[in-house]
Amino acid sequence: MHFPQLDLLDLMLNSNSKLIKMKKIVYLSLYLLILMSCTKDLASLNEHTKAPVNVPAGSLFANATRTLSDKLTATSLYENVFRFVVKHWAMVTYQDEVQYDFTSRGIISNWWNTLYMDVLADLNNSALVIKDDATMTEGEKANKLAIVDILQVYTYSILVNTFGNIPYSESLNSSILFPKYDNAQTVIYPDLMRRLTDDLSKMSESSNGFASSEDLIYKGNMTNWIKFANTLQLKLAMTIADVDNTSAKTTVEAVNEGAISSPNDNAIFFYLTGSPNQNPEYVDFVVNGNKGYYVSTEDFIDSLLKFEDPRLSKFFSTNKSGVYNGGVSGMVNNPQSNFSVPQIITADAPYIFLDYVEAEFYRAEAIERGYTIPGTAAEHYNNAIKASILYWGGTEDEAESYLANPDVNYALAKGNWKQKIGTQKWIALYNRGFEGWTELRRLDFPKLSLPIGAKSPFPNRFTYPDEEQTTNGENYTSAAKEIDGDKVEKKIFWDKY
User: Fold this and answer.
1) What is the DSSP secondary structure assignment for residue 329, as one 8-state letter?
2) Both 240 and 301 in a single domain?
3) How confident is the model over 55-67, as pLDDT tens digits?
4) Which of 492, 314, 494, 277 is nearest to 395 (CA)?
5) Residue 80 belongs to a domain with what CATH number?
6) What DSSP state is assigned to residue 295?
7) 281-321 pLDDT, tens digit each
């Protein structure tokens, strides 16, 4: 079939072909000009005029420090459950976490992800920025890199003491999506101690570290960072003493003199009175109004009463009848007014990373283990307890009276050195639940009963996060097999007894 209209159209197009080609060229030129102009304008939209392209190393370090302190200080049920594990606190109504249910609120994943993705990642990025900074002197660069590494070692030790074998050598390598788990005893702990030795060899008091506004622990004081590194070495060595006494003895004797030797050396993170820089416990209790969730435990209150501990009134209030009364872990403790409640701390209350109290308890233990360091076990034990009492607002006279109590006095108190030191350290580490958990597992004192309705045996470790099974399944399976099952009752390698 023929359509004459198409013949006419074809004739018109052929007669005007040159004109059409010229128009196409003009249109194409205009299009390209507009496209180039738009591309330039669109690209400008990606320019952050108010945000730095490169985050300063000091800001990354400060943020990592703050995140780590927040995590260890937190009282939220989604973040930190260790006050329940060591039976310093109990709950009024909700008993899941007190009864060792750590999975329903994502506590384990939260702990793991925060330490890896926020703290360690920020510290790693801070180190990368420092290495590329051509404006620093070699001394300043060495100091800053050492400080960053020291806090990384501190963070990795928390992860090991929580889970056991963990991703370590490949954990911060962005090109490895599925990092292997390294052995905590043969690989990680020895390397952490090696790193601290290396850091100490590179730090110098004659060069600058981070600025005061960036160093939220020591405000740029390199002398104290050197003491911190030595004390962390002391801590790691004492942690493995039951499984590697030779290495522990050598390390302790080498670093003791350079470790924290006064409360003035304490590694403290200072919060501020104003939001958003307030202590997380204060925020939970006061700002968020959650004080009504918590009470003391009868285990802790009864011990404090027995020892006539002057810190009791600093830790807890009396109940509505004016007496100290602890709740039962795992049971509903209602109404709250029948029980002693944690005292509300101030908005700017600090968190202690490492202090003289810990160092002195470690020294007392070291002497009992036969290590060669100055003083006696009783002297260091007394120093630790006295420093704790004074820190919490007690007096010299109260400390002396407490140390004279036959149930506290080092020469008179019942039990072996582990019982004496372990019990008093359990008290002195009040409100530092994670550290209390580590020492409770390591020293095995005091002996605590399971909470009512416990959903598992005492948690010697956290199980690995659920997402590790799905996203890093092969390495997770190998790690679980190496410890004969990913269970809470499996002990960390240093927990020998």
Assistant:
1) T
2) no
3) 999 999 999 999 9
4) 314
5) 1.25.40.390
6) E
7) 999 999 999 999 999 999 999 999 999 999 999 999 999 99
